[in-house]
């Protein structure tokens, strides 16, 4: 039996009735080939042989021969045609070499996908920039790089071009010229049907589900639609997979994806140079075209293009509408009762844009129905959308896509998980129920929850406008100001809604405070003014920078306009979930409120006929909130104040936290943590859900905090401080003495204190015998900026001091007491002996997270959200 088939340029031959061995797929363009397959019967079965010979190459056809006259054309960016199951692009010459942003999103996903940010319809899979380029009888997709640049007028321009060749993603034969020969026609069927990384599912998904190949027999192009500045391609792709989120017997996983190809502006927006003193997302390029005597890295902020409709009125200081408004549509899948609150969270930013001279610059809208606009799609890259996910994830996020040439934001798809409401309920209860009767319930009213949703909506929209988290904002408000009704009614909890300054845990009963959550504040309006003010006269980025520098220096030193980056652990002002300008004072107020809430959880969340899941969850949230307070305080020890500055600004960039404040932090621990927090043990409530883990959970908080305080990186900074500032520094010697005084108190140690004392000795033992390494490939200066301060423990003063401290503890261990106390002290003596004379191999520890021996505290509520 013999079969003749035509081998497609980009597809491997897999099976034609029998297994076919025809060589591997070719990665470069070849002529079509004829493959002859011959089967031969044998005693053991049959065998197959393949003979490959050159086939007849198809030439360029006339347009009418390729596209029949009655074929319906979908006009737009590229005119598109569908003929006998094949899809064709008609590419006009005018769009060749034009840059286009290509975004692939998940349109529909199977249930139970577990890969973060790749789970739900609307989430982004990939994005890239393409240029369609013609070469002889072929068209290529080129992927430009923007990592290096030089102005076209620069002497370095040619050199940069020679060192920045664009990658070829794909090639296509020209099938025909269009009717007036001003464009070409190509077949894109195999391209969109293929397993192309740039327009497929993310690599993380493939790895997680052990995906091997794309199954073409279970995949197809659903639609290709063209619009004036974009095309939208929707495909269904089924992959062979060893694992499946639903049913492994299928040995497959199926996704529906939408790829948007959006034409970028021919004349790019003028970029605005980034400044570390004002928080904006951005992008960096190595610029070889500047006057600097080095390869200079330039960074641009991400921002929407806003230009006034009436430039003259804008110049007079009047509020003017922009030529193009920023519009966010609410996903039609959103529960209707939450839509007004999501829209209000978007519209709240209008007052911030007024600071930049624009009115009605941003607006939230209900998405049009199919009847109102049959072409509207939430995956369409022309539209920014708040997507609502049916998910138990307790989170929301606000991404954006920008023009890599200039930083211009082009669109955003905010991700909104349904279960963010559970997170809001827990935080609002734990942080405000002591002063807020409205929070003392298991389920909030729709109005209450709606206002909390509005707050999160505003925060996420801030990200889509280019604003990152400002973790330094909440430090601007004095702790006692947050106990003032007059102050909080006007200012909320922080000058920026972009901080993680959730709800007012500082206000005490009797203060009368009722405005308990963040709002768009002074910093937010300043940042929008800085990033979005329009300058007339077509100024260059450098000319704009000179004006903005003056503005920034005018705000310098005023904590209302301070920007503090996320991710560092060296500055106590830049912390997640904290409030006020003094962590010890704020946390003391917070703990006082936790003591009021804990005994009342059962009463305040009582629900007839329900089990005690809510009681257990909220009890755990209180423990987690307490742990947050400990982290806020710990950062003061060995901490810096970090203030970004330029040469023409006075004062230090890095300034150590004052000695008395570091000392106060340890005194706080001795009082609130190392003195056993017995108030956490409410036996009546614990008897409803606790199955014997409370001792261990409190141990985890105590010993975990102790490990954080005794981080070698923190001690390294303290030694650096002592070297530079002498007696003005809070020293490691003083730290160890103060800790010992709180941990080894007189009297019989209870079970909690015994855990704590063992934890202290084990942490010292680790400092004495373990090595602490950085992250391979990451420069020490970069690690230090995030708190992983370089340290060679073996050659530092840490080990001599720790050795001396262990000897002091050993000498002071009592010899008497009851049986458990004597056994405890004997054990400590043995641990110290082993630490001073190790008998087991040394362990090289990686970068520590500052949790010490904490390995069993619930982590769910500690995840960063929003």
UniProtKB/TrEMBL annotation:
Molecular function GO terms recorded: metallopeptidase activity
PANTHER family: PEPTIDASE M1A AND M12B, ZINC DEPENDENT METALLOPROTEASE DOMAIN LIPOPROTEIN
PROSITE patterns: PROKAR_LIPOPROTEIN
Lineage top rank: taxon: Bacteria
Location of the DUF5117 domain: 122-309
Residue ranges of the region described as Disordered: 847-866
Protein name, as recorded: Zinc-dependent metalloprotease
All copies of domain EcxA zinc-binding, residue ranges: 442-746
Annotated organism of origin: Mucilaginibacter xinganensis
Basic and acidic residues compositional bias, start-end: 853-866
InterPro entries (UniProt xref): DUF5117, DUF5118, EcxA_zinc-bd, MetalloPept_cat_dom_sf, Zn_MMP-like_bac
Domain DUF5118: 60-109
């Amino acid at each position: 039996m013999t079969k003749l088939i035509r081998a497609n340029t980009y597809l491997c031959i897999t099976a034609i009735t029998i297994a076919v061995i025809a060589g591997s797929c070719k990665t470069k363009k070849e002529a079509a080939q004829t493959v002859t397959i011959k089967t031969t019967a044998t005693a053991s079965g049959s065998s197959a042989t393949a003979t490959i010979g050159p086939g007849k190459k198809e030439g360029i056809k006339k347009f009418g021969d390729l596209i029949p006259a009655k074929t319906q054309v979908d006009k737009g960016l590229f005119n598109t045609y569908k003929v006998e199951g094949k899809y064709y692009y008609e590419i006009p010459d005018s769009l060749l070499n034009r840059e286009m942003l290509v975004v692939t999103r998940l349109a529909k996903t199977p249930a139970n996908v577990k890969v973060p940010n790749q789970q739900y319809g609307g989430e982004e899979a990939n994005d890239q920039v393409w240029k369609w380029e013609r070469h002889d009888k072929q068209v290529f997709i080129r992927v430009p790089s923007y990592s290096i640049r030089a102005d076209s007028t620069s002497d370095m321009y040619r050199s940069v071009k020679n060192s920045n060749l664009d990658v070829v993603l794909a090639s296509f034969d020209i099938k025909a010229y269009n009717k007036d020969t001003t464009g070409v026609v190509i077949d894109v069927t195999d391209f969109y049907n293929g397993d192309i990384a740039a327009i497929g599912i993310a690599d993380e998904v493939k790895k997680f589900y052990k995906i091997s190949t794309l199954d073409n027999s279970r995949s197809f192009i659903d639609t290709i639609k063209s619009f004036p500045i974009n095309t939208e391609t929707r495909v269904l792709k089924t992959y062979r997979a060893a694992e499946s989120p639903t049913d492994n017997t299928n040995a497959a996983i199926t996704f529906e994806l939408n790829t948007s190809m959006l034409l970028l502006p021919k004349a790019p927006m003028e970029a605005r140079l980034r400044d570390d003193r004002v928080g904006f997302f951005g992008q960096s390029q190595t610029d070889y075209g500047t006057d600097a005597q080095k390869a200079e890295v330039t960074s641009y902020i991400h921002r929407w293009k806003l230009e006034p409709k009436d430039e003259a009125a804008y110049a007079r200081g009047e509020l003017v509408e922009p030529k193009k408004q920023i519009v966010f549509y609410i996903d039609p899948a959103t529960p209707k009762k939450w839509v007004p609150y999501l829209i209000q969270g978007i519209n709240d930013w209008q007052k911030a844009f007024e600071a930049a001279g624009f009115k009605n610059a941003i607006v939230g809208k209900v998405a049009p129905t199919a009847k109102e606009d049959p072409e509207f799609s939430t995956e369409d890259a022309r539209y920014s959308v708040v997507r609502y996910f049916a998910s138990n994830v307790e989170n929301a996020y606000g991404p954006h896509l920008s023009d890599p040439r200039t930083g211009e934001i082009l669109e955003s798809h905010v991700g909104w998980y349904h279960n963010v409401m559970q997170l809001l309920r827990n935080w609002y209860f734990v942080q405000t129920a002591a002063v807020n009767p409205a929070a003392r319930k298991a389920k909030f009213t729709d109005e209450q929850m709606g206002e909390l949703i509005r707050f999160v909506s505003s925060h996420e929209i801030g990200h889509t406008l280019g604003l990152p988290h400002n973790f330094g904002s909440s430090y601007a408000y004095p702790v006692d100001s947050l106990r003032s009704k007059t102050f909080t009614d006007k200012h909320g909890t922080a000058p920026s809604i972009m901080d993680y300054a959730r709800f007012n845990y500082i206000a005490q009963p009797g203060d009368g405070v009722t405005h308990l959550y963040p709002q768009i504040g002074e910093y937010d309006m300043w940042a929008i003014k800085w990033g979005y003010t329009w300058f007339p006269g077509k100024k260059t980025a450098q000319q704009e920078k000179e004006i903005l520098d003056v503005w920034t220096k005018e705000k310098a030193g005023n904590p209302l306009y301070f920007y503090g980056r996320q991710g560092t652990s060296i500055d106590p002002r830049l912390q997640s979930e904290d409030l006020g300008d003094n962590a010890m004072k704020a946390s003391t107020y917070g703990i006082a409120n936790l003591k009021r809430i804990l005994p009342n959880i059962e009463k305040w969340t009582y629900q007839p006929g329900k089990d005690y899941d809510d009681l257990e969850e909220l009890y755990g949230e209180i423990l987690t909130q307490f742990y947050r307070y400990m982290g806020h305080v710990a950062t003061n020890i060995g901490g810096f104040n970090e203030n970004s500055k330029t040469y023409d600004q006075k004062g230090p960039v890095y300034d150590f936290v004052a000695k008395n404040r570091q000392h106060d932090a340890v005194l706080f621990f001795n009082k609130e943590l190392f003195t056993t927090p017995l108030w956490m043990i409410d036996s009546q409530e614990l008897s409803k859900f606790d199955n014997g883990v409370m001792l261990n959970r409190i141990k985890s908080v105590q010993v975990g905090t102790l490990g954080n305080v005794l981080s070698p990186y923190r001690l390294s900074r303290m030694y650096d401080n002592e070297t530079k500032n002498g007696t003005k520094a809070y020293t490691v010697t003083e730290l160890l003495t103060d800790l010992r005084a709180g941990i080894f108190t007189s009297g019989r140690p209870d079970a909690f204190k015994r855990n704590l004392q063992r934890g202290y000795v084990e942490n010292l033992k680790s400092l004495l015998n373990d090595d602490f390494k950085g992250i391979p490939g990451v420069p020490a200066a970069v690690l230090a900026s995030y708190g992983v301060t370089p340290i060679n423990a073996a050659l530092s003063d840490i080990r001599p001091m720790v050795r001396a401290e262990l000897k002091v503890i050993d000498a002071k261990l009592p010899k008497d007491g009851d049986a458990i106390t004597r056994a405890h002290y004997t054990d400590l003596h043995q641990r110290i002996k082993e630490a001073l004379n190790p008998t087991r191999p040394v362990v090289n520890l990686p970068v520590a997270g500052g949790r010490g021996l904490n390995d069993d505290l619930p982590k769910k509520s500690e995840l960063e959200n929003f």
